[in-house]
Amino acid sequence: MGNLARADTHNPEEREGEMNRTLAIVKPDAVGSGKAGKILAHLEKAGFTIKAMKMTRLTQLQAGRFYEVHRERPFFDSLLAFMTSGPCLPVVLEAEGAIPRLRETIGATDPVEAAPGTIRALYAENKERNAIHGSDSDENAAREIAFFFSDQEVLELSG
């Protein structure tokens, strides 16, 4: 798995009709409780195409690099402990306006605040064990995808 640099920019302005890619990670709580298949089906039903995925278990070092942006936050250590507690499932997704669309599909970080029918409202246990990660910008999506996948692993499907 690659290196992940910090990105401070947020680009919510994806062009209408443009196909974009983003990264989702089905987190250890959802994988361990047998919800990964339901989450993947939810994502496909929401219009995403799966371009790559793999089951992996992050080491402490890998999780630390991936979540480097949160290093100074009070929840950093518990986040690393959680993300290394079991297997997770990184998934490259493609759709029109993929990043805002995924953020809407997964719902708020806290499942109590997540809109009904969103992945977190349906499958998250709590704010920390919230079932799924989603990239928050084009720049972070590119870095996060490269962290888990080589260009060769991301399929180019025509249709």
Report a brief summary of the structure.
The protein has 159 residues and is of the alpha+beta class.
Describe this structure in words.
- The chain is built from 7 helices and 4 strands, in the order βααβααβααβα.
- The chain has 159 residues and is α+β, with helices and mostly antiparallel strands.
- The chain has a domain at 19-57 and 87-152: Alpha-Beta Plaits, CATH 3.30.70.141.
- The termini are far apart.
Q: Could you name the CATH topology of the domain at 19-57 and 87-152? A: Alpha-Beta Plaits
Strand content: 15-25%
Q: What is the level-2 CATH architecture name of the domain at 19-57 and 87-152?
A: 2-Layer Sandwich
CATH-assigned homologous superfamily of the domain at 19-57 and 87-152? Nucleoside diphosphate kinase-like domain
Give the ordered list of helices and strands: EHHEHHEHHEH
Q: Specify the number of helices.
A: 7
CATH class membership of the domain at 19-57 and 87-152 = Alpha Beta
Relative helix content: 25-40%
Order of strands, widest sheet: 2-3-1-4
Distance linking N and C termini: 29 Å
Could you report the average pLDDT, rounded to the nearest whole number? 90
Task: Count the beta strands.
Answer: 4
